[in-house]
Write a structure and sequence with these properties.
Hisitidine kinase, Nuclear Transport Factor 2, Chain: A, 137 residues, six-stranded mixed β-sheet, DUF1348
Length: 137
């Protein structure tokens, strides 16, 4: 059986590690690597999209990183209890025209007993920024 450590229930140390592991995986911009943190039948809401299952996660991330160049993400633990973690995050990227953006948001995560994320609900807003105003490198 697949396991993704640390496992719930989370404490401060393990919740912080789970968040850092997620940040590291997303910053790899490797859809396959990222998808391994999720259950086969994971459920996502990402902005206005509903994504179901690892295969859809991989396809979503491939499309995302085709459009979001020089992507850099920072996640911060907001709260945790039992098998759930809430994070706030920000990331920066530029599009094909060279316009830079900073995205802000919150995610609510729910994990199964094997430490795989079964639910991810994300609310995200983008704002255009000047390249000189970037803060994530």
């Amino acid at each position: 059986m697949e396991k993704k450590f640390p496992l719930p229930p989370f404490n401060t140390e393990t919740a912080l590690l789970k968040v850092q592991n997620a940040e590291d995986a997303w910053n790899s911009k490797d859809p396959e690597r990222v998808s391994l943190a999720y259950t086969i039948d994971t459920e996502w809401r990402n902005r206005n999209q509903f994504i179901n299952g690892r295969e859809e996660v991989v396809n979503f991330l491939k499309d995302k990183w085709k459009k979001e160049h020089n992507y850099r993400l920072k996640k911060e633990l907001w709260a945790f209890t039992g098998n759930r973690i809430a994070v706030r995050f920000e990331y920066e990227f530029n599009d094909e025209s060279g316009q830079w953006f900073r995205a802000y948001g919150n995610e609510n995560w729910e994990f199964n007993a094997d430490g795989l994320m079964q639910k991810r609900f994300a609310a995200i807003n983008n704002i255009p920024i000047e390249e000189k105003d970037r803060k994530l490198f």
